[in-house]
Design brief:
With 217 residues, the chain is α/β, with parallel strands linked by helices. The protein has 2 domains: 8-108, Rossmann fold (3-Layer(aba) Sandwich); 115-217, Formyl transferase, N-terminal domain (Rossmann fold), CATH 3.40.50. The chain is 33% helix and 24% strand. It has helices at 20-31, 49-56, 72-84, 102-107, 128-135, 170-193; strands spanning 9-15, 36-43, 61-63, 90-93, 112-116, 139-146, 156-163, 197-199, 205-207, 214-216. The strands form 2 sheets. It has an 8-stranded mixed β-sheet with strand order 3-2-1-4-5-6-7-10, with helices on one face. Strands 8-9 form a two-stranded antiparallel sheet. Helix 1 (20-31) runs parallel beside helix 6 (170-193). The chain starts with 8 loop residues before the first strand and ends with a strand. The structure holds glycinamide ribonucleotide. Residues 15, 17-21, 50, 94-95, 97, 115-117, 142, 178, 181 line the site of glycinamide ribonucleotide (GAR). The active site is at residue 116.
């Protein structure tokens, strides 16, 4: 897709729960008239609150219940079949809490974009806010990155920084981080629609048009 083609950039969004990042992506896409369409929202959890929001907002949405699968490969295969119906340019992991297998990640390498609630490579995995508080760091935040097979790794596109204060609880810090997540992810998605994020053959990311990959509250 070139920057000047009439073709809209197609996104599929994967979620597992609340879906606040998904909502920000969809709302910003619509209000700012991006040359993009959200082709589908897919959840691995049938009870994800984000699915209700998507349905209420007339977004094409579905689920594949990962708890019904006894092995990862079968789930990944069915997820891939569902995703391929839409031929997306990018697949946005917006609070998708299921680990994707190597073959799946390799198949979509360069198209899979994740948001993680820490400044990677610090705090991959779960309980990022609790671990940030316990470790005494003064800066925390979120990372939007291309997904590679190793958990919570891959070429970084943008990061959002927040302060950590001595009186912070996990709840307070997670709210602060979520606020910056809601700035970073829509910005990156917008750059993607304009073909302004380049991943080269050496896995280096360039952002065109002088966009700044650092965000602050
Ligand atoms: C967000 O904080 C996101 O960064 C995190 O889950 C939350 C989902 O919130 N993702 C991960 O931890 C992925 N490893 P949301 O459903 O309201 O967007």
């Amino acid at each position: 897709m070139t920057k000047y083609s009439n073709k809209k950039c197609r996104f599929v969004i994967l979620i597992s729960g609340r879906g606040s990042n998904m909502q920000e992506l969809i709302k910003t896409c619509n209000s700012d008239n991006w040359p993009a369409e959200i082709s589908a929202v897919i959840s691995n959890n049938p009870k994800a609150a984000g699915l209700d929001w998507a349905n209420n907002n007339y977004i094409n949405s579905t689920y594949l219940d990962s708890s019904k699968y006894s092995n990862r490969d079968d789930f990944d295969r069915d997820l891939s079949i569902e995703i391929d119906k839409y031929s997306p340019d990018y697949i946005l992991l917006a609070g998708f809490m299921r680990i994707l297998g190597c073959s799946f990640v390799r198949k979509y390498y360069g198209k899979l974009i994740n948001i993680h609630p820490s400044l990677l490579p610090a705090f991959p995995g779960l309980d990022t806010h609790g671990r940030a508080i316990s470790s005494g760091v003064r800066i925390h935040g979120c990372t939007v990155h291309f997904v590679s097979p190793e958990l919570d790794s891959g070429p970084i596109i943008a990061q959002g920084y927040v302060n950590v204060f001595s009186k912070d609880t996990v709840e307070i810090l997670s709210e602060r981080v979520l606020e910056i997540e809601h700035k970073v992810f829509p910005s990156v998605a917008h750059w993607l629609t304009l073909n302004e994020v380049i991943l080269d053959k050496d896995d280096k990311v360039s952002i065109l048009n002088n966009h700044n990959g650092l965000f602050y509250l």
